[in-house]
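Figure 2 data, in text form.
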Amino acid sequence: MAIKASNQITIIDIDDVGRLGVYLTSSLPLSAIYDPNTDTYAPSWAATNLKVTPVLYLNDKALSLTAPGVSISWKRREGADSEGNLTAGESVAGGILTVSQNKLSTVSSRLLSYLCYVTYTDPDTDVTVNAQSVLSYSLLQNANELHYISIDGGNVFLYDSAGNLTGDSQLTLTANPVNVTISQWQYRKADGAFEAYPATSDNATVSGNTLHIKPSHAVFFHDTAVIRVLTDDVDVYDTVTITKLRDGAHAVAGALTNDAHTLYANSSGTVSSYAGAASTLAIYENGSDITNTFTVTTTPSSGITGTQSSDKKTYTVTGMTVDNGYVDFTAVRSGYASITKCFVLTRVKAGTNGAAARTYFIETDTLVLNKNVNNVFTPSKVTFQSFYRDGTSAARSAYSGRFKIEESTDGSAYTVKYISTANEASKEYTPSAANIAAIRCTLYAAGGTTTALDTQTVLITSDGRTGAAGAGGSSVIVGNESQVIPCSSAGNALSATDIVIPFAGYKGTVKVPCSVAVGALPTGMTVKSNTGSTTAADGSLVLTVASGASLGSADTMSGTVDLTFTCNGTTVVKKFTWTKSKAAVNGTNGVNAVLFQITSPAGNIIFNSSNNVSLETVMYSGTSTVTPSSFVWKKYASGSWASISGQTASKLTVTPDMVDGYASFSCTAVYGGKSYTAYATVIDKQDNYAVECISTMGLQIKNGQGYGVIYYRLFQGGTEVDALKSTNFLTAAPANPANGDFYYAVNRTAKTVTLKKYNGTTWADAAASDLPKETYHTYRLDKNSLPLDGGEVWKTGKAIYIDGSDIDEKCTFVVEVE
């Protein structure tokens, strides 16, 4: 038989029972997606305001938001916090909430709920009923990706006045990559350009994690070698400067206040600020500043422009059109060797953010064991400890793995001296002989020595003979003079970051105590620890950057910190340079969230069978709108979802003949090999036939309690047809009936509703001539709009029995009249 009319009624199991009902409709999806790489939201509530509209029912009848006696108020709740008042950007007019800002951006839990409280006071009875409803919005976020690399290792070779090497015969540099792969080690040539580190017998490859450097390698210019490690990300690299420190007849040493400086540029190469891009030459003899007795000239490399101060000591960079450059300071004086120092400049573009990764590493209580003329080591032993750190977190955790410790007599060939027999987090080791040049420790993954995680080398230094003349000049060697700080696309630090700056003081070529005072720091950067160097150990200054710190402002991309070193009675000022690495505009995203929904831009109501309703789909992948590969539209009818023939486009036009009072539609779209389904409903307000659904227990029950009847009233052209014989639904027969009276007998045990008629003597089941003329089939949908009862008819009749056992959180009862 043909379906004359259809409608549905939904009953929800909630905590409070009331005849006043309210549910909320949203103009935008209940989830928004934030892309930290582009700092955008989809959808953006600022661009397209979110509107949340209450829909009210009183005794199952629609109630206007502006009806007399209606009072509507709104609250907000972040995550599981207590509810509070609306804030700026959240306004209410006519009972409708409008949100004009991306409020989810400031909610740490990424869950924001809006609570609607409705009070209705009946003007006739002065009775007040209450109802409330909640709509929650969640924020999904695409992944950040952080690419980073740093270099650890020594940075000075020591010579006596006769030109003999007295300190380390070899330095080992170790690169520590995060989410990148090392592609090549390079050195800076005399013309300022970088090229691959020359092949030597000391380095089997120049693309591994370690690089061995000897004074004989052809990479030094003016006693300085600038070494750089490149990665598979062109914007991620690190540099280190190696210096040959010589003791001479005059014990003269030259130092720059800023050996290297990094300048931030946008993608077109325009430098945002030249603040801090300056360096000053200072020359010391036996602890005294004698710079004024020398004639100083500066020579910038191609692509570098700037100005020299009137006293010729300082050069300030004002322009840079190349990625790498330098400024040579040359100082001459009769009777003295010429002194040349190189101020290295690097132009850096914004890097990308990275996803969290676990990094394993070794730490030692000393990087150098010094051996005196009596072959006594100071300190006498070294302790290796292993740790791991997740992502960019400042916190570290002890790690128990396996250690392999080796010794070398020439800094090149190594002999194994110790291998762990069980997992351990630390190992104390004493040199086995006096003639060794280095100790190397390799950390392996727990359980064996197959997977190497990190390597740390401890060098052996020896006391050399005293210089031929002079007490020796004062020098300060700084192990870290610049650092890149990973930041969000908004210019704020992604996480708490420690900056470790090792340093040592020398008098001639002999280590002496040295301390450092820290100048003004940008907002969010503080001193975590400051330990001076001694005759036996390097000093360490640790600066820490707080998570979310702007370092002055979001637009400030770089800066410097003055470090004032005091060594042997002499003060030396050096500048530490920091640079932000912001998320690139087109940074690599993680796996995007996919959001699919059906909208009806012109509304979902058909009036008097005179108009169509357009159902349109939209899908977001991340913050971008995407097009699925296929669409399948279905309509719910007779207990199941049936495909609509020929409807495979992104839109569906619903005509009046497709809706019998109330109809449900779904669309399943395929994108990226996965299926996504959305639902929508269409109402025909004035169909030829219309059926009204009424529940005697209301639309809400509490904790599964309660029972009642759902009954149906059928209208044709606005006039009721096939009318009910009675609206009395009772568990016991009425007293004092009259002949021909009717009532519906409710049997809670059998869960039935039966029409009864009084024949003048007794109540009996109504005869066929008194029963409804039309057929009423009731189907059920669960809380996810999926068919129950195998899609078959649940019950038949104009009045049906229901109780709390029929409702699991939410149940929709669909009636079809034939």
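Caption note: The radius of gyration is 40 Å.
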